[in-house]
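note to self — DONT lose this again. spent like an hour looking for the file last time. sequence + predicted structure for the chain T wanted, 202 res
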Amino acid sequence: MPAGDAIKVPAEYWDDLKKKDIDKLCALSLAKPDHLRGAVLPFLNRKILVDIQNGCIRQFNNERWEKIDYPLQELVVLVYLLNVTDAPLAQEKISVRDLKDAQFFQGPHILKTGPLLELYGKNVTDFKRAAKELGGTKLDMADAAFKFRPLPRIPLYYLLWEGDEEFAPNLSILFDRSIERHLTADAIWGLVNLVSDMLLLS
């Protein structure tokens, strides 16, 4: 899954989605069917219309569904809908090192924590504010920790330790062990980048 401006959403992803039974798809993905256009999918603290008929994603704004021009978000949503299973949460938090494809998350695919540490590493208060704006649920871990639900079957956990004169700040991102039942390694990487970008912009 490429990053930044290099992201292209394959047209065949939309074609494959059109072939799916919308009710079965929504039952698996925990979305709500919109039989005129597609499905309404919870994403963090908002809802996204996956407009299958017109091949785009939309968010509700100013009393109407407006198109979202954010290829990474579109790609992550499509990959989720095309690959999601009925696997329940394992209720076991794991780090990237515990994933079966842990070797993928190296070099150019290392999880995006640097910009977050630069912005929030010595400002936990602003991190908490940004996390709450995205619908994060506070956890009693680290100096500040939040559970996010970017997709209905996929939680992400962000744990921040604030830096000081003696210790550098640190950020860990944890997953529920079930995540690899729904997403491939590159899709997990893309999802983390997406949520991290949204935290930076909150």
